[in-house]
Design brief:
two-stranded antiparallel sheet
């Protein structure tokens, strides 16, 4: 059965209204895994040290570093520059408020918006675990 992307987007937005945050979450960052750990879904962009500060394998880069929620919490406000401390505090509080399934939700969001492709079995596993419709 083909993936019903519009239906999945509607179902995700209905259950997870935090997906519509304009500055945080999967719609506000480049799709992918956390620059620090490579395991979590990216949910925030920071303006502090580059990814090379977190991992010897990370390439030197200019621009934002994308972190998952647990990595952002572990690094704290130091992941942002001094001029964005208040934004860091707000972002960390928002990330802390997310449900435990936020990484799965983010990955499904990227699939539903066409930013990434997962194999059908992976999509089915995620939608089944979250009790969301996939087919159309």
């Amino acid at each position: 059965m083909p993936l019903n992307k519009p239906g999945l987007r509607r179902a995700l937005r209905r259950r997870y209204p935090w997906l519509d945050h304009p500055d945080l979450g999967p719609a506000a960052v480049e799709a992918g895994e956390c620059d620090r750990c490579g395991v979590e879904a990216r949910l925030t962009a920071t303006c502090g040290p580059t990814a090379a500060a977190y991992s010897a394998e990370a390439p030197l880069q200019a621009g934002p570093v994308f972190l998952g929620r647990r990595c952002a919490a572990a690094v704290g406000t130091d992941a942002w520059c001094d001029g964005h401390r208040q934004e860091a505090v707000e972002a960390l509080a928002w990330l802390k408020s997310l449900p435990s399934e936020a990484d799965d939700v983010a990955r499904l969001w990227w699939v539903a918006t066409g930013e990434v492709r997962l194999d059908p079995a992976g999509v089915w596993a995620l939608t089944t675990r979250l009790g969301l419709p996939a087919g159309g």
